[in-house]
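Filed under: proteins

Residues; backbone shape codes:
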Amino acid sequence: MSVEVERWRGRYQEERERAEALAVRLAEAESALEAVAQERAETAQLNQVLEEELGRAAAVRHSLVEHNAQLVTRQREMTALREELEDVWYQAALSRARRRSQPPSAQEPSQAPAPPMPAGSP
């Protein structure tokens, strides 16, 4: 019986070693699954953060587009005002030039010098 017992002990030892190896492989697989689950959770969290940042960037972009439109409108208004001022300045300069180029006899009587009064007149 001793040979039979030794053979059963050997088989038991082999099965035990095989079971331990399977347990180690199972633990490694579980560890790998946990790592994958952790990576997926981190990826989901990063995706959420990126989506939020994308939303903020879109809002900022929209705000900048509106601000740019306001600036373009103001620039047009300023250009129109400048053109109006240029017209006013041109008309004023033209009017001054006309007044200066008129001969003294053509000036209005209120602008002509008053004739001297003779001595002894009241």
About this structure: Residues 28 and 70 are 62 Å apart (CA to CA). Helices lie at 2-101.
